Amino acid sequence: MTAAKPQPPHVELHTDGACSGNPGPGGWAYVLKHGASGRERVASGAEHDTTNNRMELRAVIEGLSVLNKPTTVDLYSDSKYVLDGLKTWIHNWKKKGWKTADKKPVKNQELWMKLDELASRHDIRFHWIKGHNEHPENERCDQLAVEAREALVRAG
Question: Is residue 53 part of a domain?
């Protein structure tokens, strides 16, 4: 009789991005909840000249980057751009040499390529949540992303 294969760790990754102007200063944030231990890891950051979509992507990239072994990830985001891109669009973009259906270069390609590399290591389950709808972790991520953006703006 063989021993049962150990289950990979499980986390919840909650993400959000915020931008003032599009482009303009923006922030990203994530809350990573470790299923077994209940521990949390929280991070945020900001960029001067960015877009909301780039900040949404950065939040997921940064959250996945801290996972050091294959993990089951329940990804919660209010960004259909990120979720649809990662679930569906990215497969065709790669087949077409990172071109869209109308043969144009994929916007934010370098971020999508990094996200693809990180996502390939994990089993990701996708959960869309409505933004600004009193979802506690989404509201927390939004607040952290806005605070990071505002701190950047104040710092100049």
Answer: yes
